[in-house]
Structure formats: C-alpha cells, structure tokens
Write a structure and sequence with these properties.
- The protein has 13 helices and six strands.
- It has a four-stranded antiparallel sheet with strand order 2-3-5-6, with no helix packed on it. The protein has a two-stranded parallel ribbon with strand order 1-4.
- β2 and β3 form a beta hairpin.
- It has about 450 residues and is α+β, with helices and mostly antiparallel strands.
C-alpha cells in the first residue's frame, strides 16, 4: 500500500506549488487599490466617505454643469426684467458716395458730380403694455432659478449617493478579502492535517487533494476581492474627481453603531426633499408660462422715438458749410391679433398641458419618495436583524468547524464533514458582509431622498 501511494506526488503540498497563485503580503493586500496605483505610477489616498464627498462640488462635471445652469437662469431674469424698465436703444451711422449718369427732364442722360453723403440716427423703443406677459415671464424665470438651485441640491445628493455606494463597495470588498484570508488560513490548516494523515496512512489522497482545492479557492477569493477593491476605488475616484486614487479607510469596515431613525421625521423630509422642491419650482414656472400665454388675448401698446439726420459734404454735421438737418419723431402703436390661425390658442393649450404634466410629476415623485423611504426603512430593520443573526451563525459555524476538525484528527469523523462545516462558515461570513452592505446602501438611499445625512 505504501508503494502504491508513492506512485503519485510524495507530498500533496506539491499540488499547491503547481497551482500556486502569488498573493501579496497581508498589509499590502489590504491596500490593493494602492498597489494598483503604484503599478501605474499614481498616488492613492484613503478617505472617509463624509470628507471625500465635498470635492465633487468643485471638480465633478455634473456639479459644474448645474452651477452654469444657475448662471444662465439668472441671466434670463436680468433680460426679462430689462423689458419692464429699460427701453431698447439703437444708434446707426453711415456714409456713401455715388457717381454716374441720370435721366434728365428731356429724357437724355445727364452726368452728375459724385459727392459724399452722410446719415446718422438714434432711436429708442419700449413696450408700454403687453397684457401682463412680461410680469408672468419674470415669475417664470425666477421659478427657473429656483428650479436650477433645487436641481443643484438634487445633483449633489445623487453624487454623494454614488460616492457612498462606491465607498460601501470598497468596504465590502475589504471585508471579503479579510474573510478570504481567514478562509485561506483554515484551508492551510486543513491541508497540513490531511498531509500528516496521508503520510501516516490514516487517510487517502482524496482528502489532501480536496484540501488543495480549498486552498486554491481561498486564493482566488482573495484575488477577486482585491480586484473589486481596485474597481470600486477607481469608480470612487471618478465621482470624487481627484487627480489621485481614492479608496476607503480600512478602519471603517468595523461594525457601525446603529442609531434609531425617526420614521415620521424622515418621511416628512422625503416629501419635501430636493427632487420635490425641484418639481415644485417646475410647476411654478409652468403656471407662470400659462399666464404668459394667455396674455396674447390682450392688445400690445408700444412707444418709440427717434432722432435722425443726413447731409452731403459734411462729416455727420461736424464742421463744413453744407446743411445737416435733423428730424425728431415720437410714435405710439397698438396691435391686437384678431386671428392668427389658432397659434394663440395652441400656445395656451400647450402651456396648460405643461402645467398639468408638472403637477402629475410632482405627485408621482412624492409617492415614489414615500415608497422609497418605506422600503429602505424596512430594509434597514431587516438587515439589522440579519447582521445579529449572522454574527451568531458565524460563532456557531466556527464551533461546528472546530468540533469536526477534532473529530477528523482523532479519526471519528470524515473530511467531508470538515469541508461542509468550513463552507457553512464561509457562507455565513459572506451573508454578514452582504447584510452590512445592504444596511449601508439603504441608509445612503434615504439620505439621497431627504438631501441630508441621517444621524
């Protein structure tokens, strides 16, 4: 029998050497994102989620675009306000020269002498009455500013939500790497035990080969977790918009303190969150546009005045002996479209439809925020209970694994029982990591809806 066992590798650890995967040192592996940055010649900085969320307000493209939209909306207010109090001014001036022939009184061509002619003019115009259209437009433009300001808050809330979820993904990947290293340590212990028992003739090679597979799986889990850290850290850096790679602080992987949440207060904040305020501003603007469209049923009264002059052989009236007469004018006009092929009616109906759509979107957003908060609060409670249960399950699985390892060492148990207990422990740790991730993401989702951090 001993000779038959020697036909294969004399030490099952040779399988590990043949299928070995290079794993970094423990401390370096916990900073997989830092290693990736170092390989590419970049820098890395670990940061807390709350502190890193401030950088995008200056660097992120969405934040920059939102700020520019507010500037454009303020410019529209200035333009609309000017229609109320400031007349339009226009100044023109020109000069020209002509030469050639013209038809005289007898029908013959008569040449004429070429001379320079000059003209200049100053005109002003202002709308005196437009049926309240300008006032309605001004209210609409102010509502547009409020809409853009609320959109800025919504953009920042969405941006911080993306930052927090990516940060939570880095934390979960760090926890997965720690769990995979604990799995690798157990697999190495089992491998040592199976190798000793195979060499002693108390077990077959299948046990040692199964241990080799467990070691390889643990190594692959470590590499997978490190890749997840790199990917999540890269996405986190994109949202934070920093020139260096940003990753999560390893200390944040510890179990977080759970504070009670006032569901009624959170619901009230959700029904008046950033998105709700944005839609309310859009509804106000739509109603003002509706009033502006109805002003087409009233007449428009405007006034204009002008000062013009023209002459020859005289540079715009400065010097010279040629006369340069000026004329002054003041005009008032009123207009009223009696029928313009239903364009006025279509504009009014379009404004009414836009107002109805804005009101419907506001109601739907309130219901959506209500559903989101109810779902997230329920998920928080469920994951809190799941975390407590999984912590107990991990302790039970560790004890079950210890008992099965002792039974296998003394020959009263099988290695299948050891593998089953080890897999149960790995699954319990994975369920705990997922529960913590779901808990953090549920809190981040509520914070996105209400536009502020939970206590």
């Amino acid at each position: 029998m001993r000779g038959a066992r020697q036909t294969g590798p004399r030490n099952p650890r040779e399988y590990v050497q043949e299928t070995s995967i290079s794993i970094c040192h423990s401390r370096r592996a916990r900073r997989a994102a830092a290693n990736a940055a170092a390989d590419s010649g970049g820098d890395v900085q670990a940061d807390h989620a709350g502190r890193g969320a401030q950088a995008p307000r200056e660097n992120n493209v969405a934040a920059t675009t939102t700020e520019n939209q507010i500037r454009l909306a303020n410019n529209a207010i200035r333009t609309t306000r000017a229609q109320l109090y400031i007349p339009s001014l226009d100044f023109r001036m020109g000069q020209g020269i002509s030469a050639g022939d013209r038809i005289g009184q007898s029908g013959t061509l008569v040449p004429y002498t070429s001379v320079w002619s000059f003209n200049s003019g100053l005109s002003a115009g202002m709308t005196l009455f437009d049926g309240g259209k300008t006032f309605a437009d001004l209210r609409a433009r102010r509502a547009d500013v409020q809409n853009q300001e609320a959109s800025r808050v919504t953009t920042f809330a969405n941006l911080e939500y993306n930052i927090k979820t990516q940060y939570n993904s880095v934390l979960a990947a760090n926890e997965q790497e720690s769990a995979a290293r604990a799995q690798l340590e157990l697999a190495n212990q089992n491998l040592a035990v199976t190798v000793a028992r195979v060499n002693a003739g108390a077990a077959n090679v299948a046990d040692s080969l199964a241990s080799v597979v467990q070691v390889g799986n643990a190594q692959l889990n470590i590499l997978t977790a490190q890749q997840q850290i790199r990917s999540a850290s890269a996405n986190l850096t994109r949202y934070v918009s920093t020139p260096y790679l940003v990753t999560a602080t390893p200390a944040d992987t510890a179990d977080i303190a759970r504070t009670p949440i006032d569901s009624s207060a959170v619901m009230a904040l959700a029904l008046n969150g950033p998105q709700i305020r944005q839609l309310q501003a859009q509804l106000t603007a739509a109603q003002a546009n509706q009033r502006s469209a109805r002003s087409a049923y009233l007449p428009t009264v405007s006034a204009s005045m002008g000062l013009t002059g023209s002459g020859t052989h005289n540079a715009y009236g400065f010097g010279g002996s040629s006369p340069y007469p000026y004329s002054r004018s003041l005009n008032f006009s009123a207009s009223y479209p009696i029928f313009n092929k239903w364009q006025r009616e279509n504009q009014v109906q379009s404004a009414e439809i836009a107002a109805d759509n804005a009101e419907a979107q506001l109601k739907d957003a309130q219901l959506q925020n209500q559903a989101t908060v109810i779902t997230a609060l329920g998920l928080i409670r469920n994951t809190e209970a799941q975390v407590r249960i999984q912590q107990i399950s991990i302790r039970a699985s560790e004890e079950a694994l210890r008992v099965n390892q002792l039974r296998y060492q003394i020959g009263s148990g099988t290695f299948v029982d050891v593998l089953t207990a080890q897999n149960n422990l790995v699954n319990a740790r994975g369920a705990l990591i997922r529960a913590r991730l779901d808990y953090r993401n549920a809190r981040a989702q509520i914070e996105q809806v209400i536009g502020r951090d939970l206590p």
